User: Fold these one by one.
Assistant:
Number 1:
Amino acid sequence: MKKIFQYLVLLLFSFSAIAQNDIKLHNLQCEMLTNPLGIDVLQPRLSWQIITDVSEVEQKTYQILVASSVEKLKNNNADLWDSGKVSSNASMNITYSGKKLNSKDEAYWKVKIWTNKGETQWSETAHWSMGILTYADWKSTRWIGYNQLFPGDSVSQFSKLSARYIRKHIDVKKQVKNAKVYIMGMGLYELYINGEKIGNQVLAPVPTDYTKNVKYNVFDVTSQLKKGENVLGTILGNGRFFAMRQEYKPYKIKSFGFPKMALQLDIEYEDGTTETIKTDETWKFTPNGPIRSNNEYDGEVHDARKEIPNWNTNNFDDTNWLNLTWVEEPGGFPEAQMTPNMKVMDEVKPLSITATKTGNYILDMGQNMVGWLQLKVNGNRDDTITMKFAESLKEDGSLYIANLRDARVTDEYILKGEGEEIWEPKFVYHGFRFVEISGLKSKPSLDQFLGKVVYDYIETIGTFECSNQTMNQIFKNAFWGIRGNYKGMPIDCPQRNERQPWLGDRTTGAYGESFLFDNQTLYAKWLDDIKFSQTLDGGIPDVAPAFWRYYGDGVTWQGAYIKVADMLYNQFADENVIKNHYPYMKKWMDYMEANYLKNDLMTKDKYGDWCVPPESLEIIRSQDPTRLTDGEVLSSAFYYHLLQIMKKFAHIINATEADIAHYDDLSERIKTAFNKKYLNTSTFSYANNTVTANVLPLAFGMVPEELKAKVFDNMVHEIEVTKQGHVSTGVVGIQFLMRTLTEHGRGDLAYKLASNKTYPSWGYMVENGATTIWELWNGNTANPEMNSQNHVMLLGDLLVWYYENMAGIKSNPEMPGFKQIIMKPDFNAGLSYVNASYKSSYGLIRSHWKKNKNKLTWYITIPVNTTALVNLPTTNVSKVKINKKQFDKNSENYKTEEGKLVLELKSGTYLININ
């Protein structure tokens, strides 16, 4: 789904029996985030939230009006769509079903709802506009660029290319009523009108495989344009289009050419006439601006002596600038960008500055972060300040950079010598905690530096705190690691010469992340990246977009395509991702079956259970075969699991009965062959009895019913005794370990794994100074050259377990998107309190429980228009009080199940006490 324009609207509910109660229709949403301009969904989906202090509010009916102007909507003239009164409790993903919308059409909408407590007034107005929907509408707007190197540029392993400064003078002869600009700036751009930067985004647009699709951004620039002379200005940086490793290892690394741009400015005048300004050969540029190089791996060089005052205003003579030329299109189809750009989302002040023996200085930010450093400095003209970034230090206090491989990660600033100079880069980012600063004449002060944290402009929607401080720090480390690796796509690491969107890292990771961040549009966009990278015969790459040409045909990595779609459906009730991607997912499943299914087992695996904790702290990869899980076990079990999800998808979209029958038949064949070959009925173990070999069939429902308990007990023995209560799984097994333990009654063992401080564990990373999640369980000792200190793949299902099993915030799979919440914490796992919240699409869910020997206190919040199945650890109704009142044993809203009292509660805030 391509979410969301958030629009706050305040209404007053009309009550016959209850007065003076405020009700809000909150977050009116269309398929976009933060910017309702230029969407390219022909039937966008509309959503709203109902916020109130009144309990047990349920929507019964809604009516939506959509009009082509504000005036028409005010008069209830819904010339685009009047839904009529619809009897439904749906308040999410309501598909626009009005008149066909064309390029650049405007749409204004409002909603009215009827509930069991009364009806609302009409909401205030929300808005969206359509983008450029057809190629024909772009064809007269041509791409411009300049396919040539200039002095100082180079194409090599460490390519360098100066930024291109572009300007166009225009004469606006009338009073402007409305103006929008549509821009595709490859690889990265900054846009200016009359010297003012347009928008607060950075590193825009989001990356794609530019030969397949190109994202455009849309801005309302009505207030920036004025009658008379105006100047449009852009700076084009390189991004992933040019100069990461341009023309280096072309068999592996995809490159796209020189930076280029297509821009269209549509102006509507007060007198009703219109004008369109387009990119053509009259636009002028210079490569001789201050940004001498900008390479995502290697850093940015800024020569302040070459700054061009007023270059993007009327007060500038561009006679000596060059004219841009027509250039070939990137090849990809223009698409509206439906996920937000990156932004400076946070700031970090450094903790300390230490002088080195070489006369340089080491700046410690105190936190492994992703973004860049702002510099304030005084000095002489020609002084050069160099900043080199790293995640850790050597024993002698110098930077440790071996794990960055050939990424040079160095920013350079050359002073102009005109008093205090403040600078930060425009077109690069770094993953770092420490910065070595050279070129300073004296020791700087801390206030000369400020860390800027950069990631996608998405909301933090989850909080978690518990009684175990190690678990709290792991949560904080995960938070910093996840957000740092959101770069318009989910990347594996932000610091070395990789930074790639590996599928296997997010197979379950995306699920856990969705409790912390509103990552819906990010992952919907990423599914498109995967789809566009699919080969004609059905293969899917290991990395998508396929910036690296890795097509390994694994199951556990490529299966992320299906697993992430499943996450978007479960967490956000997004059926569209299933409808849009089902044919491509099925094509891949068929491809794998046709090429690698032998004797009803999936024989192809590439990476194994990646990053299994090795037997020694000093080695990177385990050499002990008893620790390694056979690839056929991994791929067969995982393929079986994906077949179950595909069957669910087939039902959701009403696919053919033949599809469903095939999934059923093949599933049974694989399960039978798998158990026949790998299940040892004497030892109640699978394959060579690794925890991964056992947890996968348990998690996927492959174990014969009569043997489940014994296989589980055997797995527990492996964890508790053989591995002495520590993690022994790699990237694949860790995705299902914590939930499987808890769901089979051993939440206490999952808690032990989560709270451990000794190797191998997440707590071991914390104990050894980690402020993010490492790539390796033993990343501080096992040849740290191979360790990224900011990877999130080893989190597995830990965050899912935090929320669903410890906090008790889980979406009922039968009612996705948290329409119904399953609140079933494991109160006996080992924690004495949990305080967690999650902003679902319906509103805030909160679970805050505390317990001692004789009492459990549980505060919960259930959003309006949802229900919750609240599981209490007792069957004795007389022990339960809700909001200080004895629970009514005659109520019809409860049942007993598996030794628990299960209440079905409607929206509201509740205090539950159990003695």
Note: The longest helix spans residues 631-652.
Number 2:
Amino acid sequence: MGIFELIYKVKDIMTRGFIKVYDDETLENAFDKMVKYQRDEILIVDNSEKLIGIFTIKDVIRSRYRGISLKDSIIKYASKNVLTIDSNSSARFARDMMIKKNIGRLPVTEKDHIIGVITNNNFRDTFYIRVDELFKLQNYVFDNLHEGVCMCDGRGIVKYWNKSCERVYDVKVKEILGKYIGDFFPNAMILKVLNTKHRIDNAFHEPVKGKFVVLSVLPIYDSNKKLVAVVSTDRDMTDEVNLTKQLEDEKKRVEFFEYAYKNEISSKYNFSFIVGKNKKIIDAISIAQKVAPTSTSVLITGKSGTGKEVFAKAIHKASKRTGSFVAINCSAIPVNLFESELFGYVEGAFTGAIKRGKIGKFELANKGTLFLDEIGDMPMEMQAKLLRVLQDGVVYRLGSEKSITTSARIISATNKDLKELISKGEFREDLFYRLAVVQINLPDLKDRREDIKDLSKLFLRQVSEAEGIEINYIDEKVYRILSDYKWNGNIRELKNVIQRMVVLSDNGKITVESIPEYIKEYINDINIKEYEYDSKNRYDLQKITDNVEKRTIEKVMKMAHGNKNRAAKILNIKRSTLYYKLSKLKL
């Protein structure tokens, strides 16, 4: 059934101003009414208003020729076998009936009562006007479809081209209408269907270079099963395809950076690159190597800058886990964002949530390692939720009831005393034991001075390569000065100092003058002079003894705030001896 049958019914196009007479009325009376109302037919009903006949202008002409008396009853000369149609029948059905029965009018009934009549004039003056309106409506609908609609006849000549086609292919209707489709699109799917006679559904196609569509093509047959037309509906997928390509490119970039990142982890953060001769650091490396292949939680403790994250990455690298190393600094996340950062959220979970939601750190670290730095700064309410995840191995995104299994290995780190925090009620004891299955403590740099020179050389090489600056000379006195500094910032501070010296170096040389002033001030000028002795005096016992004595007396004098009597008691020497040495040493 077509759109015309669905929309227009008999009652929409019939004439309601018909002439009705009763069966006992005369021909003369009927003629008068036909002339008065200018009608070509009269409908005849009985006393119950039921239609029993029809009298037309042709009947009038026949009665005149036969010399019939105008006083006769009209029913004697009317057509008795009258076809009728229901008012709710389709207009197309009414037209087909009139053509098939070769009749010029068709009474319309509703519950056996006449309510109108359809004549050929109705179809000429009303029905076809409505059909024209339908064509206009059809064009409006088709022109506003998202899909492009093209119809070609059996020879491939374009008969219809909607506005979406114009937009998709940048070809105007006046340019293509009446033309062969192959002249514009040599590989058009319409041509394929014209050849094969088989429909195509939801096929991906590139009609012209750079334009991608998903289309369906339908062959249309007449009543004799002859192919008379082909209709194509094309949905433009160019933006989606280009977006997909961009996403693929981005995916490749992410994979490249992930590969590069893993290579960086591999090259810079394995145990062979952790420099250390100090016993404490060697013990820490040994424990880390043993625990790395397991899924055991590790707690790394130590002051800021002692290399906790370096150790965590080395453990991850040695673990052979297939997932990523994901780090999160617990001290840098606002309390209200903690849960969303760790567990993620779905779209609409809260005001300000980004569209399509966000994946949490636990999911990102699945089958890998989640490094919780500064774990001592995690809020108490989040500690309980973290403990639950560690117990169950399941996370829930904010706003979702769907569970997500995670097998992230947890390595945490802190520069705080967690047991002291536990005693203050600021850290959960049960969480501590979950995190500190294995505990590794990293010493301060000042407690491993024997490693400072090797660390300095490592950082010099790394910074030189990164900055593209060649260092071809380093004064040995620089290493001795650096080894004597206090390094409150530990290894991180040392690396920053090395970077400063490299980028500010002159002609690829690093000398005592390259060392930052605050370090030289701490060592003080006297100590600097000690380092300025050339190599032949380095083991001169007398000079070494004099320097040690000088530094000791100077330090005690500062402690005594210049009180010589008190300084002499601390040094366990006579006051006269102290005066002598102060004079000798020019203090």
Note: Confidence is low (pLDDT under 50) at residues 1-6.
